[in-house]
Amino acid sequence: MAESNSIFLTLPIVAGVFVFIATAYRLIYGIRVSQCARVLRDYPLEFHPRVIKKHERWTQYGNVYEVRVTTRGQHGAPLMLAVNAAGRRRWPEGVEEGAWLAGDLPFGGVLVVPGSNTMLFLKPADWDKAARKREEAGAERIARAERAKLNNRTQWAVMMRGLGT
Fold first, then answer.
1. Do residues 98 and 112 lie in contact, with contact meaning Cβ atoms separated by under 8 Å?
2. Nearest partner of 61 among 26, 34, 96, judged by Cα
3. Partners of 102 in the beta sheet?
């Protein structure tokens, strides 16, 4: 009789361990969403007419996309790395027709896809190559990026975990 009672006592422990592991694994997505919220507080949304997906790469924490966000009147849109803030692995529908961007491309930002609940977290694909544009940004843009915590490469490594940056 004592043996059958001990199995029922251990089942909640096993379930609790699985819940803890799932919570710890999803914590990285909560960090990404909070960073996106910080960027959205500090930057206005601006519509960009085209977002072009160049490549896609699978990582443990979500798919990473290489994208170009075109800006009207500017040539040579920088190559950006994008990851879904919620960790979903599919490319959002309709993003090719344009999306709303909050941020500053040399520093990074958040891409919000119209008609969906999708937020893509962006950073320059080549952080070092974008350094010159960040240095030329001016005091106001640099201060805004600091408030949004977009200017710190270490911060980006945490947010874009799994990207090899």
1. no
2. 26
3. 110
H or E segment and range at residue 7: helix 2-42
Q: Work out the pLDDT band at 1, boundaries 50, 70, 90.
A: very low
Residues 98-121: pLDDT tens digits? 899 999 989 999 999 988 878 998
Helix (H, G, I), strand (E, B) or coil at 1: coil
29: exposed, middle or buried (Cβ count in 10 Å: 0-12, 13-18, 19+) = middle
The DSSP letter of residue 95 is G
For residue 138, report the phi and psi dihedrals to the nearest 5 degrees: 100, 155
Distance of alpha carbon 64 from alpha carbon 87, whole angstroms: 10
Exposure of 34 in the CB half-sphere (CA atoms within 13 A): 8
> Taking the model in full, what pTM does it have?
0.74
Which residue reads 């009789």 in tokens?
1
